[in-house]
Each structure stands twice: as C-alpha cells, then as structure tokens.
Amino acid sequence: MTTNRRSILKGLAAAGFVMASMPWAQARPSPSTQGKALASDALRNVTALVSGSALDAAFMAGVQQAVKAPGGQSLSAQPLQGLDAATFASLNSLLNDDSATLLVGLIDDASATLVIDLVRSAGGRVLSMQHHRVGQDAGAAQWAQALGQSLAATSVAPNTPTSAQGTAYVSLSCVI
C-alpha cells in the first residue's frame, strides 16, 4: 500500500469519526422518550393528506366517516399543493410536535416520497403504503371514500379499481 493511499484512508476514517460524533449527526431519541403518546393513543388525532386531485373530496369524506365513529377522534386536513416548500415546512412542524397523530393520505408519487422521508426522519412509523393507478369515474370516487375510511380506521384497504390510463396515486398510513 502506498503512503498516499494509506494517508487518504486514514483521513477518511478520521472524518467519519468526527462526523459521527457531531450532535446533529446523532440519532434522535425515540418518540416514546420524548413524551409522545403510545401508538394506540395516536388514533385520537388524525391528519389527512391530499394533493389536489379529483378524488380528494371522496377520500376526505371517507376519513370523516371513520373519525365520526365512536372514539372521540379529531380530524385535520393538510393539503399538499405541488412540491411547495412552505407546505412541507408546515407538515414538518406537525411531525415534530409532541402530539401523536395518525397520518393518512392519498397523494401523488413525488409528494409521497417526500412525506415518507419526513415521517421516518421524525421518528414516525409507516403502517402501510400502496401504489395505485385509478381512473376518474364514479367507481374511483367510491373506492377513494372506502380507502379513506379504512385508512383512518386502520383496517384492511379495499381493492383498487385498476385502470391502465388512470392517474398514479400512493395511499399511506403512518403513526407519528
């Protein structure tokens, strides 16, 4: 091994050690150690994510039906309009508060990728994530309503009415 190569490897190892010891590189404590409620208590607060699609109203109606069921749940909606930084900043503040929340959504692929990364970074747990391709007919609206209801009630999601020419969606359920 040449001297130059050995020096480079030593430098990389030292840099890795320094980076790992920095406070911002440390793993964040688990949500249970930060005073957040247990996952069973998270079902009392439900936040629905929608991305401005034609199925948003039907999805929200299904979530509202599940929340109205006995159990005293509260519902809030978080519209994700495109990939706007302000929208994701407000979602990030929701993820980092001290209240446990069930996060459900029917959103586009790009938004879903960012949401899942934010949830995992905040110490949340992804309960389910499914990809769908759905048309814009009446059957799709009924499916979106049933999907919203099942995600908010943490039950089995309905079968997707597939459409080769439909719009791509991602449904997700997370506990934060």
Automatic annotation (TrEMBL):
Signal peptide start-end: 1-27
Tell me which domain of life the UniProt entry assigns to the organism this sequence originates from.
Bacteria
Q: Which UniProt keywords apply?
A: Signal
Q: Sorted alphabetically, which InterPro entries does this protein's record hold?
A: TAT_signal (IPR006311)
**Protein name (record):** Twin-arginine translocation pathway signal
Organism, as annotated: Polaromonas naphthalenivorans (strain CJ2)
